[in-house]
Specification:
By secondary structure, the protein is mainly α. It has a single domain, classed as Growth Hormone, Chain: A, CATH 1.20.1250.20. The protein has 14 helices and no strands.
């Protein structure tokens, strides 16, 4: 954290996570409490709108990250974020929800190009146990950013003049991210011979197919994609569960999302601090089972908690503390689940193709998350509530966690790290 090779990147990605979630949660709270009939559907679709660009543009983003010097590209991406925040300010001030959804899509594009740069540059500056620690800190920093952005977005937008306050805060955070990006050390191009192609469909298919030729990379991608699908579903359920089951206000939504972010940060930091590189994958399946157990307990507790209309009511009731404890533990298991898979993805990728393998992962993450968001929206339209969806998620995740545990025991994740 004190080194010049890591701290600027850590701050840059943390500021980006703050801004994405400040904007997104402000939009979600506004939609949920101003658009009563379509609010839950819009909330479920918001995650898909943000992640769709990963499926569309990740191949090109990965090629660009491998072909050019990464620190300069990161600065360009951060200026892109500043432009989007200017457009977001107009959308908030005019209460134009289609425009705000368009900005959310634009932030998804920006994140698509930033992700292979962020994960691709880490192994350029960190190695061995330092790479494990760096990934854990990046994951924790991301979710600390999610926490701060989520709390700020939900709280600020509900204040008098909230639209102006949110707009100004987004612009200020974007400026901080640009300032830290200028301190990131140089990372020379990994593959200067290649040139990016803009044939999106063909390149995306080729990229995903290339990743399947590397068994450990493909194993990591499948695991991470499932993690993102589950995470997207859980984050979509919390606001609706708070409103429709607990009859809670927007501040309770913010509290729940904040506790979730803290938990992921705790789990990620625990992996970075206590788990050695050689034993990372042993804990992935166990962590996945932990997510299922506490997700199911959270849903069951919410069904029987009664009315918890505000933060005071949540903190005054045993059921409220039970819910918050479940959220904290299930998200901590989630953080412990994802970090080892990111390290495997980076270490098993050839240096010349590392950013592209990260991009292939992003494609699969996006496809799985968009499918999850679409299925969630369909279930809502069919009248199935948030607790039932969470119980279904817990059951499916338990099956996947057992599969991952068996694959690790059989050593299926081992194999060549050089792409064909």
């Amino acid at each position: 954290m004190r080194s010049a090779r890591f701290l600027p990147l850590f701050l840059t990605q943390a500021f980006g996570a703050i801004n994405d979630n400040l904007f997104k949660n402000a939009l979600v709270v506004l939609a949920l409490y101003r658009l009563a009939h379509v609010g839950p559907v819009l909330v479920a679709l918001a995650g898909g709108v943000f992640l769709l660009p990963y499926a569309l543009f990740s191949a090109t983003a990965g090629q660009i990250a491998d072909t050019f010097e990464k620190s300069r590209l990161i600065r360009w991406v951060k200026f892109w974020e500043l432009g989007l925040m200017l457009l977001a300010s107009i959308g908030f001030l005019t209460s134009n929800f289609p425009a705000l959804m368009a900005v959310l899509f634009g932030l998804g594009i920006q994140a698509t190009f930033f992700s292979p740069l962020k994960y691709g540059i880490l192994p350029d500056h960190l190695h061995g146990e330092a790479l494990v620690a760096g990934n854990g800190l990046v994951e924790a920093g991301t979710f600390i950013g999610i926490l701060l952005g989520t709390v700020a977005g939900g709280a600020l937008v509900l204040l008098p003049g909230g639209a102006i306050i949110v707009s100004g805060t987004c612009l200020a955070v974007s400026g901080c991210g640009i300032a830290s990006a200028f301190k990131i050390p140089l990372a020379p191009a990994a593959d200067q011979k290649s040139r990016p192609s803009w044939n999106i469909a063909s390149e995306t298919w080729s990229l995903v197919r290339l990743s399947t030729h590397n068994p450990p990379v493909w194993f990591a991608i499948l695991g991470i994609s499932w993690f993102w699908a589950i995470g997207a579903t859980l984050l979509a359920e919390f606001p609706t569960l708070a409103r429709d089951v607990l009859h809670a206000d927007g501040h309770v939504v913010t509290l729940m999302l904040g506790v979730f972010a803290v938990g992921v940060g705790i789990g990620s930091l625990a992996v970075a601090r206590f788990v050695k590189d050689a034993s990372l994958l042993k804990y992935v399946g166990i962590a996945g089972l932990g997510v299922s157990v506490f997700t199911a307990d959270f849903a069951w507790t919410a069904l029987h908690a009664g009315v918890l209309g505000n933060i005071s009511a949540v903190l005054a009731a045993p059921a409220g503390w039970h819910l918050l404890g479940d959220l904290l533990v299930l998200s901590a298991f989630g953080g412990a689940f994802s970090v080892p898979l990111y390290v495997l993805l980076q270490e098993a990728s050839a240096p010349s193709h590392r950013a592209r393998m990260v991009a292939a992962n992003n494609v699969m993450n996006a496809v799985s998350s968009v499918i999850a968001a679409g299925l969630t929206a369909v279930l809502y339209a069919k009248g199935i509530g948030a607790p039932a969806i969470l119980l279904l998620v817990a059951a499916c995740n338990a099956a996947v966690a057992l599969w991952i545990f068996m694959q690790v025991r059989r050593g299926v994740h081992h194999g060549s790290s050089v792409p064909s």
